[in-house]
Amino acid sequence: MVIRVICFYQEGCMGCEEQTPILREVEKDLGIEIEEIDAVKNPEYIRTYNLRVTPTILVVADGGVKERMEGLVHREDLEAAIRRHMPEPAPD
């Protein structure tokens, strides 16, 4: 199962600015890439994912949203949400 982690933000959002360094830490810790999409410049996502606030982080797998976190998310909470949906490593 392949997962996508998407963070929706908008320019001038203080919470979004605080979220960015947390995203970088999680990417490094988990070895993944987190997509960042400006919700205002891409309004189709607002409708598709029913976005109400920024930042909003989605963990998407198997064609559906598995986790939805609105507002500033702490590193530990974000990592735990992503790990719940990451594929198990292959046994040695």
Would you give an account of this structure?
The chain is α+β, with helices and mostly antiparallel strands. The protein has a single domain, classed as Glutaredoxin (3-Layer(aba) Sandwich), CATH 3.40.30.10. The protein contains 3 helices and 4 strands. The chain has helices spanning 14-30, 43-49, 75-83, and strands at residues 3-9, 34-38, 56-61, 64-70. It has a 4-stranded mixed β-sheet with strand order 2-1-3-4, covered by helices on one side. Helix 1 (14-30) packs across helix 3. The two termini are 19 Å apart. The model has no long low-confidence stretch (mean pLDDT 94).
Q: What's the level 1 CATH class?
A: Alpha Beta
DSSP helical segment count: 3
Question: Separation of termini?
Answer: 19 Å
The CATH topology name reads Glutaredoxin
Could you list the spans in which at least 5 consecutive residues all have pLDDT below 50? none
Main sheet attributes: strand count, strand direction, barrel closure? 4 strands, mixed
Enumerate the strands of the largest sheet in spatial order, edge to edge or round the barrel.
2-1-3-4
Number of domains: 1
Principal-axis shape:
globular
Mean pLDDT: 94
CATH evolutionary superfamily: Glutaredoxin
Strand content: 25-35%
Task: Supply database-style keywords.
92 residues, alpha+beta, Glutaredoxin, 4-stranded mixed beta sheet, 3 helices, 36% helix, globular
Write the layout of secondary structure elements.
Elements: E1 3-9, H1 14-30, E2 34-38, H2 43-49, E3 56-61, E4 64-70, H3 75-83
Parallel strand pairs: 1-2
Antiparallel strand pairs: 1-3, 3-4
